[in-house]
Amino acid sequence: MGTKSNKVSQDNILERIFKLTANQTNIRQEVVAGATIFMAMSYILFLNPTVLGAAGMDKGAVFVATALATIVGCVATAFLSNYPIAIAPSLGSNAFFAYTVVQGMKIPWQTALAGIFVAALLFLLVTLFKIREKIIDNIPADLKSAIAAGIGLFVAFVGLQNGGLVRASSSTLLTITDFHDPTVWLTVFGLIFTLILICLKVPGNMLLGMVGTSIVGIITGLIKMPQAVVAPIPSLKPTFGQALFHLQDVFNPQMIIVILIFFLVAFFDTTGTVVGLAEQSGLIKRGGKVPPRLSKALLSDSLSMISSSVFGSSPTAAYVESSTGIAVGGRTGLTSLTVAGLFGVSLFFSPLLAVVTSQVTAPIMIIVGAYMITAVGNIDWSKFESSFPAFAVMVGMPLFYDIAYGFAFGVISYVLIMVAQKKGEQVSLIMYIAAIIFLILLVAMNQAHY
């Protein structure tokens, strides 16, 4: 009797905090969604140390820093905004950090971390003053739908690439894969198996699809059995606090450019991702204003980025893989809290995560891309000022391999077309400012790479 009473009490607490009934969800659905997101994005725990290791950073410390920054971001998102969106160190930013800033510009990784800390503080200021929210509020409805669809294409493209279904070609840039590679067939199996589960309406179909694919991979020898179940947590000492110890090194022209790029990329990458995911989950209604708590979701990202620099990792961002959890019914912060909990557990059971290979997650990303592309139905294709910017966003995100770039070309083309059609007075001041900032971003990134 006491056990049943405790369970009911716990359920009531979760209901009050996350408003499960109002969001048409339940505890089981949210936990499954969180586990699905975790499975889809857990690769960052192993990929981030590899990338930042190229910058001379301790891989064990980066592993822990990656998990802790993710936990901070997801917990903040859960309780501040009640959104089903996971936040973790992003792939684009970590590559820029390691290969451009540290290796290319010869900036010590400690100083680069200090640059991230300063950029994160700027990020926090514009969030507290709700500048980000105002920008989102002034994005045309058609552009918001295009962002959701563009992220879908981006996610699907990443899935096709990670699963080995497409490969580079000297004549056509991309072409179909070589089916002599057995790992490709593991991706194909996972895709077919998961599609069947979805068609049969099996609960938790995407999570089960990944579990089944991992098992088949182990049986066939394509995925190695983990050598251990539990491993000691690596020390965070090599990277912890280095950003604070080297703040005095950021006050020079070279670092100002680096800080500007970190700030702009994080600002628009996360903004674009949050808008797309919010629309996918129904948190942004067609043609409506942005929900007030969206600013709290953006605040969560700012806090996570600050913690990431202090722990010793690259900038964080809202993860497009959150779409996998939203697709299976995640609607509240309980989904994000589940992700945080699993990342915490992963610190102790890191060897088990090695079975979640890119071939395991690729089918899920492809299927989620198909779900998200349905947002194109909301776009008014009869108006050029709607259709071309939407087209620019949707094409730009996967082909430029960057959400920020796709978002940038969509905003810039929208402003240009509206002015050319003598409808400039219908464009908000914020959209004009955003277009200018995007131009600065494009020029700054071009200078950094070349």
From TrEMBL:
InterPro entries membership: Azg-like (IPR045018), Azg-like_bact_archaea (IPR026033), NCS2 (IPR006043)
Protein keywords: Cell membrane, Membrane, Transmembrane, Transmembrane helix, Transport
Pfam families registered for this protein in UniProt: Xan_ur_permease
Keyword Transmembrane: yes
Domain of life (superkingdom): Bacteria
Subcellular location field: Cell membrane
Membrane topology classification: Multi-pass membrane protein
TM annotation in the entry: 31-55, 62-87, 107-129, 141-162, 182-200, 207-225, 255-278, 332-353, 360-379, 399-417, 429-448
Main location, first listed in the record: membrane
Family, similarity comment: Belongs to the nucleobase:cation symporter-2 (NCS2) (TC 2.A.40) family. Azg-like subfamily.
Protein name: NCS2 family permease
